[in-house]
Structures
1.
Amino acid sequence: MIKCAECGASLIAKKRTVAGHSWVEYTCNSNNRYGNEYCNAHTIREPQLDEIIHTELAMLRQEILDSSQKYDEIVREWNKKKPKYDKMIKDYTDKIVTLKGQIEELIMDRIGDREHAKVYNSMIEKREVEIAELTQKIEDCRKFDELSKKRCDELMSTAELLDEVLLEPYISDANMRLLVRKINVHENEDGSLDVTLEFNGDFKDTSTGCFEIND
C-alpha cells in the first residue's frame, strides 16, 4: 500500500536497532535493490506514518460529520417544503395527462393528413420529450427525501466505524485496507517527505492533503 511517488515501487519494512533502541522504518524498494542512482530512499519511520494516518482519519471523520449535518439540514428543508413539492408533482402529473391527450389528437390528425406527417411527427416528438422530462422531475421529487436520509445514515455509519478505528492505539491492517487505497511518499530536493493518502472510493474519492516530514 505504501508507494514511492517517484518510481512507483513499494516501500519495504526494515527493522533498525541503534544503541539498544529498535524501530521499524519503510524505504523505497528500488533504492534498496539498485541504490541511489535509481531512486532515493524515501525513508519514513513507522511511528511517523501512524501519526499521519491517525490525523488524516480524524480529519476525514470530521468531514463526514459535516456532510451528515448538511444532509440533515436538507431533509429538514425538504419537510418544510413538502406541501409545495406535492403540488408540483400534481401539476406535473396533470400536465403529462394533457400532453398525452394532445399526442392522441395529433396521431388522429396525422392519419387524416398524411401529406404533413413529418410536421405531426415533430409535434408528437416534442411532447414525448416534455413528458419524459416531467416524469423525471416527478421521480426526483419523490426520491429526494429518501435518498437524502439514506446518505445521511451511510455517513453516520462510516463515522461510527472511524470512531472505533481511532480508539485503537494502532490501526489494524484490516481497517487500513478497508479505508485506504494507497499511501504515496514523495521526497523533496531538501530531503523532506510529502505523504499523501488516497482513500477508497466509499470513504473519499480524492486524495487528501499532503503532510510534510523533516528529519
2.
Amino acid sequence: MLAGFATTYFDVWSSSRSPVPVSRGVHAESEVWWDLTRDYKAVRLKGPVDTEKLERNYPDGDAALDGLVEGGGVYAGMVRIRLTLMNFTKVPVSVTGVRARVTDEEPVPQGSLLSCGGPQGGIGITRVRIDLGSPTRAAQEYDGKALVGQYPTQQVQLAKQDEPAIFDILVVAGKTSASYVLDVDYQQGTNKGRIVVDQSGKPFVLAPTEGDARAKYHCDTATTGWKKNR
C-alpha cells in the first residue's frame, strides 16, 4: 500500500544513513528538498550577507542557499523530508506512527533572511505534514487542505522484500530554531520497533521565517541574482 502511495505522489530519492534495528532488517534513508514552484526555500543567518559574493560563488540561488547552510545558516519556514524505507526480510512491516522529536531549541537567528521560489499555482503534492509548533508534533494526513487524521489513517505496509517504499513529509517551522529527528514506529509480526531518521547522522534544523530580520532578500526569476525586499 505504501509503495503504491509513493508512486502516486513522489519520485526519486537520495540519502543519508540512519541508525536502524539491523537485526530486524528494516532500514530508512532521508533527503531534504523543496519544490520551488510551490515552496519558498529560505535560509536565516546570524548576521549580514554579501549577495555579490553569493552571485560570484554559486550558479543559482538554490545552490547559494545550500551553501549558506553549510556555512552556518539555518533552513527556515518549511522543508520536505523524503523518507525511503526498506524491508530486507520476508516478514511484512507496518508503519504505525511518525512524529518529530525536538532535540534542541535556540532563539531565532536575527540576521539576514534569503529565499527562492514561491507559489506558482498547481495542487499540493504532500499529504503528510508535521508542525513543529504543535504540542504532539505527530504527523497528520491531509487531502488537499482538509485534515484526514493522524498519520497513518490506515495501515501502511512494507510487504515486499528489497523494494523501497518512498513517501514525503512536509515539516513546518514552529516559533524557535528547532533541531529534530523523526521517529518512525513500526510493527513486524508480533515485534514493535522504531527507526530514528536524521540527516547524515545529525538532526534536521528548521527556523521560522517570521520574526525580526535585519534584511530580507529574494532571488530573481532566473535565480541567478538577489534583490533586497523593500
3.
Amino acid sequence: MDHTPPRPEGLAVRRLDGGQVEGVLDDVFTRGVRCRLLDTGTDGIPGAPEAPQWLLAELGDGRITGACPGGRWRRSDHPSTADLSAPALRPATDRWRVLEVLVFGPRAQIRLGEGAEDGWISADDPAPLPEWLRPRDRSFLLQGWNGRAHSRTLGGDVPFSATSEPSGTRAALPLGWTDFTGRARPRPGGRGAALESAGTWLTVREYWASDPGTGAVGVAFHRLTGMRSGAKPTGPEFDVGTGDEIAEEERRW
C-alpha cells in the first residue's frame, strides 16, 4: 500500500543547494541585510525585491524574530529586546542550534531545517485549480495581553513589540502592537451582526490536498505570509448571535 501523502495543490516548492542555504544564513544573521534569495527568486519561484521580509528562527535555546521592511534587519537579539530573545546565531560556529528557520514575505517562504543542513523555498503555483482546492488566507492572533503593562511597541526605525501573557510567557514580536478589540457590525437587511476584530496578527496561506483513495480534502501545507497590526486582515467572519460563517461577498477584506 502506498503511504505517500497527497501533494498540496497550488504550491511550488524548490530545494535549495548548499550555496543558497549559506547565502540565506549570511544575509540574515551575519550581515543583517535583506535576504537576496527572496528578492531574486529561483527556478520558477518569483522574487519580490520591494516586499517586507520577516524572520522566525526556532533554536534549541529559544527564538529569534525579526523584520526587514527595507535594507537591513532588526532582530530580537538587538539590545533593546535581547532579554526576550535567544542569543545571536553565528552560522560559522553554532548552526547546530537551529531547529527551524523561516524567512518569509508575502509571496514566498524559505525554510531551513535542523542544523540548517537543508533548505526549501515555497510559493504559489499559478496553475488553475477548482475552487475547493484553491489556497486560502488565514490570520491568527499573536501572543500578548491587552494593556501597556503587558504588551507595548518599542521605539526604533523598525517597530518591535515586547509582549507578555498572564501565564508569564514573554516574547519579542517584529511589528507594532495593537491590543485585541472586537465590535458588532450590523449586517445588511437587519440580519444580525458580524464580529469585526482588531489586534496583532500572523498571516498564513493554507494549501489543500485531496486523498486519491477517499476524495477527502484537508490542509496539507501552510506558508507564512506576514505580520500585521490593526483590523483582522483575512476571514473567516462570523455572526455574533448564531456563530454562522458569513459569506465572503459580505466581508470587508
4.
Amino acid sequence: MSSQLIERIFSLYEQNNPLIAVESPLQERISLLKNLTQKCINSGMNCYLWMLEDDKLYQLRMNDCELAFSEIKEYKRIAFKVVREDSFEILRFWKTSQLQGILILEGIYPWLGQGATDADSSLTAEWIKSALINIKLYNHNSCKTALLLGSNASLKSDIAGLIPTITQELPTVEEISDYLPQILPDSITQGAMRFCEVG
C-alpha cells in the first residue's frame, strides 16, 4: 500500500538528496519499514534505523517477510550524556561514517518544529538543524541519505526549504478494499464485501 511512497523516497535518493523528511502515520510504520527495507535489499543497498529512545544503530533486514534488526557496533553512542546534544551523536557519526545507504532517524521531528520554549531546548534545536545542514553539505553525492521519519513532519521555515518532504496518508476505503483480497482468505473477503455493500 505504500509502494508509491517508497518510489518517491527512492526517486529522491537517486537524485542524491542526503536528507529527506517523511511523515508517516504510526499505523503505517511497520508496512513502511518493511517495504523500504525490501526495496533497499532489492537495490543492493543497506537500510539502517536509529531511534532516539535507545540511541542504537540497527541494520534492517527481512527474515521470512518480517523485519530483522542487527545492531551496528561501529556506532558508539555516548553513554554518559553531559549535554542534550550528546543524544544526537548519530548525526556526527552519519556525516563521516563509511556506511552507505538509507539511515532512518526517528525522534528528531519534535526538535525541528515550533515547540522549543526554553533557551536550552532552543539551543539543542539549533544544534540539530546545524548538524543536518552539515550532513546535507558533506554527504552530497555520497550514496548516503538520512531519512527523518515521524508522525508529523512539521519543520521550521528556516530548514523546511532544505529538506524535501513526503507525506504518507492513511489508505482510503477503496485502497483497503483492493488490498484485503490479497491478504485474506476468499471466504472472509467475500463476507466483508457483502457487509460493505449492505452497509
